[in-house]
Design brief:
Number of helices: 15
Largest sheet: 2 strands, antiparallel
Structural class: mainly alpha
Number of strands: 2
Helix content: 55-70%
């Protein structure tokens, strides 16, 4: 929105100060600040309103960690509404709204946010941990992701030196390796987005556990978007140049700001949970950014914590069905450490540290060419 004002007014020199809006770094910083401000300002009132509306709050699994039943009972959920309000406000106010990558990511975040809200609403109203049908939710997730990837393929700008870039998978370390999947990339891209959304959903099990790793991943991908969207930097680092994708950095800034604002209320002990409303939207957003920047493979490193949480669930379920025994004391893996006697704050902070280390490792691949 503000970028449109810059285009309309700055050309004739009417408002010289608007020239700041042409700088991607300035708009990214402002998106971060705006998103954080929106979340912080609406936080207390929204939490009180949610407490009044939800009564018993988010249902806690009876077969889960026993202290959670006592300590976390009555805590409201759907805090993702706060996150989405800040994130979308910051992104839409400061982004170039003519950019297809911005709209592709916004569609995923908003669509997954609605799905998560419906899931949370079903859980709260029925006071059960089972929300919307898993098959229905998965089908809708795939449809939303496929729509976003289709927009990128159809309307994204194709660089002359790599005309098939928008349907290709780039591999880290190997600078020339680019595998064109043609329209099968639609399936691959949708898989990345859906997988990222559900991986963050699995991780969101302790106060603040998912919030900081999402911000770390957003910061890493914000830098990646800025670099691959700039021909000079992309050429210097021998990355595949993606015209226009730098605008996604503004969205990543808004995601960081929304996360910071939410962490004010979600830090242990949490006053509100983000719920599926937040975790699905944030995870889907990270996945969509990875697809837009052509750095899908690196997501397995930068989002390695989310991958580990998901794999722990898959391994636990598969092994239990095969042998009737469990590998982990409880899955996802953060609950395994709780069963071992680690305090919640210890698990959360150590997982934050791991997420930072993995993000730095993922960023290192930009120079390993």
């Amino acid at each position: 929105m503000f970028y449109w004002l810059y285009e309309q007014l700055s050309g004739g020199g009417h408002v010289p100060a608007l020239n700041l809006l042409k700088y991607l770094t300035f708009r990214t910083a402002m998106a971060l600040f705006t998103a954080q401000l929106v979340v912080v300002l609406m936080g207390s009132r929204f939490i009180r309103w949610m407490q009044a509306k939800q009564g018993k709050g988010q249902p806690i699994r009876a077969e889960g960690i026993q202290r959670h039943v006592i300590e976390k009972a009555g805590t409201p959920t759907m805090g993702g509404v706060m996150i989405l309000a800040g994130l979308l406000t910051g992104a839409l106010l400061w982004s170039d709204l003519s950019n297809v990558y911005v709209w592709a990511v916004v569609i995923v975040v908003a669509g997954y946010g609605v799905l998560g809200f419906l899931d949370d609403y079903a859980k709260v109203t029925k006071q059960t941990t089972a929300g919307v049908s898993g098959k229905l939710r998965l089908a809708l997730e795939v449809a939303i992701a496929a729509l976003a990837v289709s927009l990128i393929i159809a309307f994204g700008q194709r660089p002359p030196e790599a005309p098939h870039l928008l349907t290709s998978v780039a591999f880290p370390v190997f600078k020339q390796l680019l595998v064109d999947l043609d329209w099968f990339y639609l399936v691959f891209g949708a898989f990345i987005i859906v997988g990222a959304a559900n991986a963050v959903n699995f991780t969101d099990g302790l106060d603040g556990l998912a919030t900081v790793p999402v911000m770390v991943a957003a910061a890493a991908y914000g830098l990646i978007a800025y670099l691959v969207g700039n021909f000079v930097f992309a050429n210097y680092l021998q990355l595949h140049f993606v015209p226009g994708v730098g605008e996604v950095a503004v969205f990543c800034g808004a995601m960081i700001g929304a996360g910071l604002g939410f962490l004010w209320y979600n830090a242990p002990p949490a006053k509100i949970f983000m719920g599926d409303t937040g975790s699905l939207a944030l995870g889907g957003g990270i996945g969509a950014v990875a697809v837009a920047t052509r750095h899908e493979i690196v997501l397995a490193v930068i989002g390695g914590l989310f991958v580990a949480e998901t794999l722990s669930v898959m391994i636990q379920v598969a092994w239990f069905k095969r042998t009737g025994r469990r590998i982990f004391l409880m899955a996802p893996i953060h609950h395994h450490f709780e069963k071992l006697g680690w305090s919640e704050s210890t698990i959360v902070i150590r997982f934050w540290i791991v997420s930072i280390m993995l993000a730095l490792l993922g960023l290192a691949t930009l120079k390993l060419r």
